[in-house]
Write a structure and sequence with these properties.
Helix content is 63%, strand content 0%. By secondary structure, the chain is mainly alpha-helical.
Length: 276
């Protein structure tokens, strides 16, 4: 490996470390803000159950993905990225900006797909099973959902033709925004900010119990994609979480992926009803 490549890798590692530290600090600040100035008060028992379940999911998912060496897939993908769209472009701010825009658009499309296709929804609905939305909801994902997403991101590396380190850096930026738009916070000028970025109010709509409401606001960082593709919705949801089935703990959360709302509704139709 050339000296220039080694230096580039070292700089990439330093940037990723800085972004990770920034995401951790942001997570801590948002936790404090949820206590000091929450958007809405939440039942203490429900909030505690949410935080414990979400934190357990985070630990479990990271252990499994680490054991599978999932992050190494990015560097395998990089070996095939030499013919990608931006592979011939000089590494610099313009390439970083274009990559970020393409990545955010790709994540918008992937997020929309997890709502449209039943096979993907059965895993993604785990994220929507939280009865409340708080900063730890950003950890509430099924491990299969995360693994499939990693494969999609690896395809992005190949098709777009960028370095794995750049994609991982963008991922950390997106993680920061995931913490932000899941947080139960209130602040001034949110309506103005939401014209450009996904804010907690927009993403709260995305976690509505009503399918007609939560099939909207798919953006991760930029809200322009929802405007462009007509999926933006600005309503205050009456209730958050899933409609028919709920997960009270991590084990239920994991196995929820293998039970669909359609199955539950069919079961409820054949069960006898009591007198009204």
């Amino acid at each position: 490996m050339s000296e220039q490549a080694i230096q580039s890798n070292q700089e990439a590692f330093s940037l990723n470390e800085f972004l990770l530290l920034l995401a951790i600090i942001a997570f801590g600040l948002l936790l404090i803000m949820e206590v000091v100035k929450p958007y809405q008060s939440v039942n203490k028992r429900i909030k505690q159950a949410s935080v414990v379940t979400n934190s357990t999911a985070f630990i479990f998912n990271n252990v499994i993905l680490t054991a599978l060496r999932a992050s190494s897939l990015f560097f395998v993908a990089q070996q095939f990225s030499y013919f990608g769209l931006l592979s011939g472009m000089a590494n610099g701010p313009l390439k970083w900006l274009i990559t970020f825009l393409l990545f955010d658009l790709m994540m918008y499309g992937w997020h929309a797909a997890t709502h449209k296709f039943e096979f993907l929804w059965r895993f993604h609905k785990i994220h929507h099973s939280d009865k409340t939305v708080n900063v730890t909801t950003g950890f509430r994902f099924h491990v299969f959902d995360l693994f499939i997403e990693i494969v999609i991101k690896c395809l992005f590396v190949i098709v777009v033709g960028v370095e794995a380190y750049l994609v991982l850096a963008i991922e950390l930026i997106e993680m920061l925004f995931i913490f932000f738009h899941h947080s139960n916070v209130a602040f001034k000028h949110e309506a103005e900010i939401s014209k450009v970025l996904i804010t907690p109010s927009l993403h709260r709509t995305h976690h509505s119990t009503l399918r007609s409401e939560h099939d909207s606001n798919y953006g991760i960082v930029l809200s322009i994609w929802d405007r462009l593709f007509g999926t933006r919705k600005e309503v205050i949801p009456a209730k958050l979480g899933l409609d028919v089935i709920e997960a009270e703990n991590f084990l239920q959360l994991f196995f929820l992926a293998f039970v669909t709302e359609r199955h539950i509704k069919k079961l409820l139709q054949i069960l006898p009803k009591g007198k009204q």
